[in-house]
Amino acid sequence: MKDLARAAESLRRLPPSCGPVRLIGVDGHAGSGKSTVAARLAACLAAPVLHLDDLATHIELFAWTERVRQQVIEPLSRGESARYHPYDWSLRAFGAPRTLAAAPVVLIEGVGAGRRALRPDLAALLWMERGPEESWSRGLQRDGPAQAAFWDGWTVAETRHFARDPSRPFADTLVRECPEGYEWLPGPAEVPDPDRSVTQRHRLSPPR
What we know:
Layout: H1 2-12, E1 22-27, H2 34-45, E2 49-51, H3 65-77, E3 82-84, E4 87-88, E5 93-94, E6 98-100, E7 105-109, E8 124-128, H4 132-143, H5 148-164, E9 173-177, E10 182-186, H6 200-204
Helix pairs in contact: 1-2
């Protein structure tokens, strides 16, 4: 898709934000289409993708910040490949280590990818522009009735997370899925307060 190719090229041209890496966050509600967009961008960029579902657990849906920092961001900031232990949601245990290369562009995809603690290391933050109810409905339909109880708990946890630590107000780009392709829109017009964590792109851009 031409729109994806253009978006990918604009991300490739950003200055590095985490050592030599351009770290791109792809955030949005569960079921909003983050994984699909990240996969398509990754194909255009030949970029690895970190799925935050691999670092969350049943009892720590959002308490994964330190794992991301220690296992992923710190090595990438030194120009080294990261090694993280993905969580197996069926076995309820962390598995064998997986390598994430310190490529020119690395995508971090998942709910909370634009959280306050990660934004200073992001070159840009993309937000999937789809509302929570529609997103959750899509996610439940994807996962099937067997996961209904999990989704009941997830929607409460996600709502609380974004109430405490919203990502959308800090997004550089809003990504709206269309019948054919995507629409790439400028992020929220308000520039955050200078003492709040923002992406590298916000730091380099003048107020709009």
